[in-house]
């Protein structure tokens, strides 16, 4: 392994063991940025901002916006008509969906992810998040469709592969889930989070 990969592995393990420590997520985001895992890095920046004290939110948001710019450049190559304004709006609505999701308001999060994808149909983060929402609402076919689209758009984005595993397991397509798990493990630097997503996904009643 390279020194950068060791840095990511250490940060990933720390952020998993201490999920409320914003600094762990921040160090992970920075390390992921250095190895070119932009989608994963942006998610880690969002986690860092959500747990950081108010005085530290602004500098984290500044770094996250730089990462968002890198994501926009990648997405622009997939959809030439995508504007920065639409991409930024999609990221913001995706973040709103994440906030709903964290509060257990899954139906509301699903609606936000729908809007995020409408604003930017190549936003792989929104597809991964919508896949997770579909899993939790007991819609595995829709979850699988979104996971596959996420993987198509961002082949190295860890969460897309993790949600592919989760959807296949809910559909009881276990041989395919095992194959998808191998690919997901090759992309993650710490398997605990993958195990939580793949094994812990369960059906929940829609929240009103």
Give the key terms.
single chain; 208 residues; mainly alpha; 0% strand; globular
The number of distinct β-strands equals 0
The run of helices and strands is: HHHHHHHHHHH
- Separation of termini? 47 Å
* Spans of at least 5 consecutive residues with low confidence: 199-208
Assess the beta-strand content as a share of residues: under 5%
Shape, principal axes of CA atoms: globular
Rg over alpha carbons: 16 Å
Task: Give me the secondary-structure category.
Answer: mainly alpha
Describe the largest sheet: none
Output mean pLDDT. Answer: 90
Please characterize this protein's 3D structure.
- There is one protein chain.
- Helix content is 79%, strand content 0%.
- It has 208 residues and is an all-alpha fold.
- The protein starts with a helix and ends in an 8-residue tail after the last helix.
- The longest helix has 25 residues, at 54-78.
- It has eleven helices and no strands.
- Helix 7 (124-136) packs antiparallel against helix 8.
